[in-house]
Each structure stands twice: as structure tokens, then as C-alpha cells.
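Anyone? Bumping this.
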Amino acid sequence: MLASIVGINWGDEGKGRMVDLLSSDYDIIIRYQGGNNAGHTVINDSGKFVLNLLPSGILRETTVNVMGNGMVIDIEHLTNEIKKLTDKGVKITSDNLKISDKAVICLPYHVLLDGLEEERLGDAKFGSTKRGIGPVYGDKYMKKVIRMGDLLNKETLNKKVENLVEWKNLLIHNGYNAPKVETKDIMNWLEIFGKETAKYVCDTTTYLQKQINDKKDILFEAQLGALRDIDFGIFPYTSSSSTLAAYAPIGAGIPFAKLDKVIGIMKAYSSCVGEGPFTAEMFGEEADALREAGGEYGAATGRPRRVGGFDVVASKYGCLVQGADEIALTKLDVLSYMKQIPVCTSYKIGKKIITDFITGDELAIAEPVIEYVDGFCEDVSKCRKASDLPVKAVEYIKYIEKAVGCHIKYVSVGPAREDYILMD
Ligand code: GDP
């Protein structure tokens, strides 16, 4: 079985939590895109973990975890992340962590450039997490990057870095007027953080091909959600990689593989970090109450997330572009304080009502059409089967299921591994 777990919305849907739960059925977990610009929070028997780069399966001893070629990896961040986990007793070796030799290294100057550009943009900023992700993906497509495999060849590494630094300074120093970047500093950084990370580097395509031949079960883990996809998201307020399930086999290093199942993770309400159009957004006290109830602060950055009611228009689109076969609906418990649950059922642009999601400039002027569904007003966090849920909660789930047109198989009612319900 080859399955992908992906975000249906703007990210932060609780993918990490679902990967942690479902990874028991899989042998290999693969992260296939993105970098350390988002975080998965996982709470299980061993404690609370925030993972930015490592696949969430790293917390299960039985799984092998792969960081695919589609990723961009800040090896300093990765070194620290590995240390934090091993300090808590998580075992990480080259047997259970494999990093693609083709994954790209996010260098300190990418982080620097991210900050310099956001500063230059001022009020027009994209709301970047300033982790260097945009600049490093840009360089990847210009073929001017260092890849993880380069760490294994010290002889050629210095020359490559020298060339890159000379080129980058044209922008950093001559363009932004910032101090020049020095080759020796980059080499020093690569030396220090390459020490910990190089030992996991291998040809993951060859490794995975063998595992597929041996009929191993593989789970692909996405970062962020459909609406942040570079092509199909709310461009330019997207991430710089493809967050879609269709990209999973490519970013994982096995482009010949076909997915058997796509599991979409969708939140019972909406949240969004950073800038860009967010039609269902709530403001004022209503927003504060939902933000507090849901603990909506970024796992990677601590930034307060923007929040709103469930957005049918955006989520239906998310299910479509992800090709979702089934849904895990998360954070239902958070809505227990609401007497009436707001749902954004369509968008209004001038006099026009639209129910199919749009991207582009028109989205910025879309207004939400909000309908209210009866709240269930009960703590559902201890419910473990559908029959434990209040009738109104089941009605809300069914309402959403019908609206997005995809079966809701799991309902998550808390952050811990066992806080979920398997629906009929
Ligand atoms: P991810 O990037 O999609 O993995 O999501 P994040 O980790 O950024 O955000 C999800 C947050 O919600 C984490 O803090 C989870 O522990 C928490 N969480 C996940 N599912 C549930 C749930 O059903 N109920 C509650 N209350 N919290 C949840």
C-alpha cells in the first residue's frame, strides 16, 4: 500500500498527529517537499514533539523514515532537531533515517536573503517564515545549489561553494547592500552541520525501489496544505513547493510509483498563517475565542494564526486538487464552546455568488457567505466511537462531508494519539 497524507486547507490541519497515528500500519514514512518552515506537533506516550524536518514516523521505532529529494534541508536546524529528539530518548540512526542525496541544502544565505527581501517589500510582504525556503527553491530551479550528496565529496564541495558565493554576493552585497557572504563561513557551517547529517545520506531511490519490490507499505507525509501549493494555491501567498499528493512519488524519489490512497487532513474550522486572502476569516472577540480554544499559534514560528469558520468552498477545492479518497477531520473538540457554528458556504464577489474556489486577484475581494449550524455544546474529547458523539456533532460532520463530497473516515477529538474516532 502506498498512501499519502496531505493537507486539505492552508496547513496546520494536524497532519503530523494523523501520521503519528496511522504510521503503525506502514513500514516507511517519507517527507517529500518543503523545509523547516512549518511544524508538525505530535503528542504521544513519550511526550510532546515538534518536528519541522523529520518525518513524523521517526517517533515509531518500527518505521524507516526518508527525507526525499523534493525537500530543502537546513542542516543546522536538522542537527538541532535530531539532538532534541535523541535527548528525549528517540533512537535515530542511519537504519531508521535516510536522506536523499538529491535533497537540497538550505544555506545560511538563503535565510539571510529571505529576511532581506521581506524587509525590502515592507507592507507588501508575503508573510514568509524567513527560513530561506523561497530563495533556496528559486536557486534549485536555477541549478545553483548544494545538494546533500555534495557533503560526501569534500574535494568538489569547496569549488562549488566558491562559485555560488561569488554569484550570490552580486545580489546580497551589490543588490541589497548587505555585507558580503564568505566562502570560508559557508564551508565552516557545512563542515559543522554536515558532520551529523551526512551519515544519513544515501541514494534513496535505489533503497525505496527495493522496498517497493518487497511490498513494503509506504506513507508519504506532506507539509502545509493544498491552498499553499505553488501552482494551485493562493499564489503568490503560497509556499515554494508542491504540497499535493500527486507530487509525492516525485518528491519522495520514486516517480514510477502510483498512490493507492490519498488521506486528506481537514480541520473542523479554518486557520491560516501569514499573509494572503483568507475569505472565511473572523475578527475581534469571535476570532480570539476560536484562536484560544484551538491553541492556534504557529508550531514553527509561534505566530498567532488567523482563524475562521469551516470554508466549504476552499475545502472542496482542496479535496479536489489533492485527489482525496478519504478525510480525517481534526479538532472537532475545539468547537464544543460554540452555540452556533459558522460555516462559509459560498463567496460573494460583487453581486455574484460563487461556490467553486478561485485563485488570483478576484479572491482578494471575495466576501464570505456565512451560514450557522447548531453547535453540539458538549465536551467530545473523550468520545472514542461515533455513537459516543452528541447527535448535533454527528450532524455537523455529515454536513461537512456532504458539502465537500468526500468521506470522513476519521474524526480527531484531541491532540493525543488515541483521541480519535473511526467513523462508519
Ligand atoms: P500539521 O502541521 O498539519 O501537523 O499541524 P500542526 O502541528 O501545526 O497543528 C495542529 C495542532 O493541533 C497541533 O498542536 C496538534 O497537537 C493539535 N491537534 C491535532 N489534532 C487535534 C485535535 O483533534 N484536537 C485538538 N484539540 N488538537 C489537535
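Late reply, but here is one note on the structure posted above: The radius of gyration is 22 Å.
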